[in-house]
Amino acid sequence: MIIVTSNEIPGYRIGFTFGEVFGLTVRSRNIGSNIGAGFKAMAGGELKGVTQLLHDCRQEALSRLAAEAQQKGANAVVAFRFETTEFGGTGIEVCAYGTAVGIEPLDPAQPGRVPTA
Question: InterPro entries annotated for this entry (predicted)?
Fold first, then answer.
């Protein structure tokens, strides 16, 4: 599954558009972790637990987006984006979204390469 932020994929032609797809996840940290992050925020520095939480959320949302695109028959997603929102002061909502498409290589002998000449 090719997933790109652009509206086109170099070396490929979009033959089919299957529509919007998304992956969504909402996660929260435990109370002890939230208290620790609060103290760290006062002292300054990276909130490593929150960074890891966001990373995990994005990976899960991206995986769900790819699964939905594949279920629709797509082999790529264009115009991909993430949207992140704080949820209730204790959690994070991450939405990955884009347009599911069916792509074909411009040069079937060399998929992924733009033909020269």
Answer: UPF0145_dom_sf (IPR035439), UPF0145_YbjQ-like (IPR002765)
**Containing domain of residue 58, as a range?**
2-105
Closest to 54 measured CA to CA, from 81, 25, 80: 25
pLDDT digits (tens, 9 = 90+) for 58-107: 999 999 999 999 999 999 999 999 998 887 777 789 999 999 999 999 88
Per the structure, how many domains does the chain have? 1
Q: Is residue 113 part of a domain?
A: no
